[in-house]
Amino acid sequence: MQEFITEVLMKFADVGILGYVLVLLLIAIENIFPPIPSEVILTFGGFLTLSSRMTYWGVVISATIGAVLGALVLYGVGRILNPQRLERLIDSKVGRILRFKKEDVSKSTEWFSKKGKTTVFFCRFIPIVRSLISIPAGITKMEMPIFLLLTTAGTFIWNIVLVYLGKALGDLWENVLIYMDTYSFIALVVLGVIFLVLAFIFYKKRIATKGEDNVAN
Fold first, then answer.
1. HEC string of 59-101?
2. Kindly report the CA angle at 116 between 135 and 68, in degrees rounded to 5?
3. pLDDT tens digits for range 138-184
């Protein structure tokens, strides 16, 4: 994937506006399909500003527009997966197996409604999660202007840093990817631990509540 991305970008870097359009499209697709490495697109794009007609701010702005467009697609998916549909899923066999209740949906959406703004902004700096966070924003119907502002701000900062690193390191731009892999691994491990802790607390409370109900009956 990395070799394909670099070859395509290098091919169109000197073809006027097409280089920026390509960056925009690749980043938009990366936001919808997180496994595509945005780090490669951004850092190599920064490197290309040293040897092509592409400029630093041109790459940053086109990447930011692409990221926002991709985020809007996932936000739309979240609007489709509204709380009512999630509650119907909870009532299904899958929900019963996982021991979820309708109240869990309302509690989660209520929490995200309160903490969602901070979450949407800071999650833009975490690989994979930076794309998927748009879905709960859509589910909770976060106001579009606020969603766009937070998404644009967080993505803009992320792009500024990675494109600059690619430009600053020049031929050594791939070194950034090594550190980004480490950063991504640590970030995902931390998130995984947090998820497991919250899941443990959730099921512990659920078991305790079930025990109280049995005693009452």
1. HHHHHHHHHHHHHHHHHHHHHHCCHHHHHHHHCCHHHHHCCCC
2. 50
3. 888 889 999 999 999 999 999 999 999 999 999 898 888 888 878 77
Domain ranges of the chain: 2-173
Distance between CA atoms of residues 20 and 23, nearest Å: 5
Give the pair of three-digit tokens for residue 94: 């899958």
Structure tokens at 4: 């394909």
pTM of the model: 0.77
Helices (H), the chain: 2-12, 18-32, 38-48, 56-80, 83-90, 93-97, 102-122, 129-132, 134-139, 144-169, 174-216
Distance between CA 55 and CA 129 in Å, rounded? 28
Residue closest to 39 by CA, chosen among 164, 177, 203: 177
Neighbouring C-alpha atoms within 13 Å toward the C-beta of 175:
9
Q: How many CA atoms lie within 13 A of 195 on its CB side?
A: 7
CA-based max dimension of the chain: 76
Q: How far apart are CA 81 and CA 127, in angstroms?
A: 23
Average pLDDT for the chain:
80
Q: Give the residue from 66, 83, 88 showing the smallest Cα distance to 20.
A: 66
